[in-house]
Specification:
- The structure holds two protein chains of two kinds.
- By secondary structure, chain A is mainly beta.
- Chain A has a single domain, classed as Beta Barrel (Porin).
- Chain A is 11% helix and 49% strand.
- By secondary structure, chain B is α+β, with helices and mostly antiparallel strands.
- Chain B has a single domain, classed as outer membrane lipoprotein receptor (LolB), chain A (Clam), CATH 2.50.20.
- Chain B has helices at 3-24, 32-41, 125-129, 133-136; strands spanning 49-59, 62-74, 78-83, 92-96, 99-103, 111-113, 118-120, 123-124, 137-147, 150-159, 168-174, 180-186, 192-204, 207-217, 223-234.
- In chain B, α1 packs antiparallel against α2.
- Chain B is globular, with a radius of gyration of 18 Å.
- The chains are: A mainly beta, B alpha+beta.
- The A-B interface holds A 27, 29, 68, 70, 75, 102, 104, 107-108, 110, 112, 117-119, 121-122, 133, 141-143, 146, 157, 159, 161-164, 166, 192, 194, 197, 199, 219, 221, 223-225, 227, 279, 281, 285, 362, 388, 391-392, 394, 426-427 and B 64-65, 85-87, 89-90, 96, 98-99, 105-109, 111-112, 114, 116-118, 238-240, 243-246, 248-249, 251.
Chain lengths: 427, 251
């Protein structure tokens, strides 16, 4: 969002705010986190052998602050971050994660204009029906460093008893080189109701130039301990870019131009994302979340193997194991870099299982996250131990262990383990 | 005339109209339902209102932590709890009928929770959000007895709604004032879970209202929780504030 847009929003909000609202107290939340990380690099992985293709840092530090301010209908969430590691000079970023004005048209209707994070999904680690919200990362579902940003949108909400209807218009417009431009238009509609203990939403989403997506999400509580939830989002065809290697048996080739293409753009095949999950809280306070996620836009086992064989071939060229003409070595290196674009922090293949166990004992919090690829059984396991020093101060240690064969999804990633120590101040 | 006042009026009227019959039956005791409804009045001053609630947890007499909450009730079955402590600022607990949600700004997704889950220390979500026992429990009269110098009715309360916080309560209500004095909480298994002593009442805006109660853990000795209520005031929030989807619009 441009600075001009921000100024416009603040001025509009201030003018439009009724005096009653303007007299309301300022609400604020401030979180400052500093996290230092030591990484154990996976130097045997074919995607980044000897850490030479896309060098990863051994040590890094991130300092980040998130300030939430709200007065009347106006609210904003600003992130300031600084990062440094053993490879790069320190960098600084400032981002406006949210900046929006909520106006109550009546006791039943609200309008929101600005940049805002909306949350529509019912899942814990995955949110396929969150069509206008940042997609969650299962290894960090709570976005602990506060990096997710909202969308530039206008939304209209209608509330009636235990139901609501929300229409959202999204446009990533702004000012560039002194001129206003319009981005791609997106439209989303959600109908929500709470019926006989069932939270149920129907979701529709259309992005200009893409295809219509339709879905549903729900959650239901059984007794005092068990919650079940699910999400489904489907569409005909897919605009996702795939590496061309996944459709050919010839994995020993070198692409001399960008190899990605939207190969299912004109397909009539139905692609869907499905989430089924549950949450159980034991009498002693232990809370367990288990989720199964299927994304048919992900790579099948066969496609992954083709892609991995292709990566190994390029890696062997770089290591000199497979001799090629000298003028092909540099293109092969680009092939390796291009192939990294296939990987996604939310899972590259189709089927995943997520688990989270948590218990708080006095001022201690113990959390264990498992994010496993159900096709090749590779996983990332993340135990976290946190300690609340006071209401305002806490500290934590977080270990991530990547397991699996060297050609499996998580076994082939850049790291073997990472260990972070962090501290947080909240006001 | 608000609904709460109307309830008091009609309960009193029915009490008076029944008194002649009861006297003829050699009894001046109102029914268990009437006693329970009257006892709720001193815990809920108005039909819709706001109260600032402080929860302090003690272990072996030493305070371990303190939580502050802004609690707004709307009618019989809707409650909105705003968390005020720095580490949970921006969190809300919403209760509508028999269902509860917890909203955390970090995840931005309201999650379903149950009234029995602990909010803080020995205080359950329901201890803060569900204070109208007559709506949630079916009473039967057990006996009359003197509790710490006060003549009390003792009622046996059994849950009649899914959203009731506890399965069974033995409830002491002062005979002269209809104010709750003590509640002994029992789990479904019959185990004595905790004791709630309703310690202090004060005159606030022309009504006598509960301002302090103590929860004693009967399963883990030495643990107590004190809940304090300040700044009672009638307050009517719009209906949409009690829609789960509205939670993410709250600041």
């Amino acid at each position: 969002m441009s600075r001009a847009y921000l100024v416009l929003l603040i001025v509009a909000g201030t003018i439009a705010a009724p005096s009653k609202l303007r007299s309301q107290d300022l609400e604020y939340r401030l979180s400052v986190v500093d996290e230092g990380t030591i990484n154990s690099i996976n130097e045997n992985t074919p995607i980044n052998y000897d850490n030479s293709i896309l060098p990863q840092p051994y040590r890094e530090n991130i300092g980040t602050s998130n300030l939430f301010l709200s007065v009347g209908g106006f609210s904003t969430l600003v992130n300031l971050s600084t990062s440094t590691d053993n490879l790069h000079s320190p960098g600084y970023t400032c981002s406006l994660r949210e900046c929006a004005y909520d106006y109550s048209l009546s006791d039943a209707m609200d309008i929101t204009v600005g940049k805002k994070i909306l949350k529509w999904g019912t899942g814990y680690a995955f949110n396929p029906t969150g069509v206008v919200e940042p997609q969650r990362t299962p290894s960090d579902p709570s976005d602990r460093l506060g990096q997710n940003e909202g969308s530039d949108l206008a939304s209209l909400d209608y509330f009636a008893g235990k139901s609501s209807l929300t229409f959202v218009y999204v446009n990533d417009s702004g000012v560039k080189s002194g001129r206003w431009y319009w981005g791609a238009q997106e439209f989303a509609l959600r109908a929500y109701t709470f019926l006989s203990g069932l939270d149920l939403s129907l979701v529709g989403h259309y992005r200009e130039g893409d295809r219509l997506e339709l879905g549903t999400n729900w959650s239901y509580v059984i007794g005092d301990n068990l919650e079940l939830h699910g999400e489904f989002l489907g569409k005909q065809g897919s605009s996702i870019l795939y590496h061309q290697i996944i459709t050919t048996d010839d994995d020993q080739q070198i692409f001399t131009s960008y190899p990605y293409t939207a190969m299912y753009d004109h397909s009539s095949e139905i692609f869907y994302k499905l989430l089924l999950g549950g949450q159980y809280t034991f009498g002693n306070g232990i809370n367990i979340v288990v989720e199964f996620y299927r994304n048919t836009e992900g790579l099948s086992t066969t496609q992954w193997k083709r892609w991995m064989e292709f990566v190994k071939f390029q890696s062997d060229i770089q290591r000199g194991i497979t001799p090629v003409a000298p003028d092909l070595i540099e293109p092969s290196r680009y092939n390796l870099l291009w192939s990294l674009q296939t990987l996604s922090p939310r899972g590259t293949m189709r089927d995943y299982v997520f688990g989270r166990e948590y218990i708080a004992i006095a001022n201690w919090g113990i959390e264990l996250i498992q994010f496993m690829n159900a096709d090749d059984l590779s996983a990332v396991i993340i135990p976290t131990l946190s300690f609340k020093i006071s209401d305002n101060l806490s500290t934590y240690g977080r270990l991530s262990v990547f397991t699996g064969k060297c050609d499996s999804e998580f076994g082939a990633l850049f790291y073997k383990t990472t260990f972070s120590l962090g501290g947080e101040v909240q006001l | 005339m608000n609904r709460n006042f109307a309830i008091v009026f009609w309960v009193s009227l029915s009490f008076l109209s029944c008194s002649k019959t009861m006297a003829q039956n050699s009894s001046d005791r109102p029914s268990a339902d009437q006693i329970l409804q009257l006892s709720d009045v001193s815990r809920n001053g108005w039909d819709s209102y706001n109260v600032q609630t402080t929860i302090q947890n003690f272990e072996d007499g030493k305070m371990k932590d303190e939580g502050r909450f802004d609690v707004t009730f709307k009618g019989m079955y809707k409650t909105l709890v705003k968390f005020l402590n720095a580490d949970v600022k921006g969190e809300y607990l919403l209760m509508v009928d028999d269902d509860m949600w917890l909203y955390m700004p970090d995840t931005r997704k309201p999650i379903r929770i149950t009234p029995l889950q602990r909010l803080m220390g020995d205080a359950s979500n329901g201890d803060v959000a569900r204070t109208r026992y007559a709506n949630d429990y079916a009473p039967t009269f057990l006996r009359e007895e003197v509790l710490e110098g006060t003549q009390c009715y003792v009622l046996n309360l059994t849950a009649k709604r899914d959203g009731a916080t506890y399965n069974r309560i033995e409830y002491w209500i002062a005979k002269a004032t209809n104010r709750p004095r003590r509640a002994e909480i029992y789990l479904t298994s019959g185990i004595h879970y905790k004791t709630i002593d309703f310690d202090t009442y004060k005159e606030i805006l022309g009504r006598t209202l509960l301002t302090e109660m103590t929860i004693t853990d009967r399963l883990r000795s030495g643990r107590t929780t004190i809940m304090r209520y300040d700044s009672y005031s009638p307050k009517e929030l719009p209906e949409k504030y009690f829609n789960k989807d509205y939670l993410e619009k709250l600041k």
